[in-house]
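Give me C-alpha cells for this 86-residue protein.
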Amino acid sequence: MIFLFLHISFAFKVPRYLLVQKYEERLETARKTYRKWQRTLKFKGLCGLSWIKNDPVYFFLLKIFGVSIIICIFAALVPAEPLDKA
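Here you go.
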C-alpha cells in the first residue's frame, strides 16, 4: 500500500518538476532576449538620434514638439471642471 502511494506521489511530482524547470528555462531565455533588445535599441537610439542633436534646427523643433505633446497629455489627464456650479 505504501509503495502504491509513493508511486502515485512520484508520478505527480516528476512531471510537475519538469514543467517548472521548463518554465524557468523559458523565463530565463525571455529575460536574456529582453536585455539584448534593450541594449540594441539603446545603442541604435543614441546613434540614430545623434544627427538631431548636432543640428540646431532639428533640436529646436524637437524641443517645441516635445513640450507641446507633454502639454496635450497633461490636459487630457486632468479632469475638466463643470461649467455651471450649482
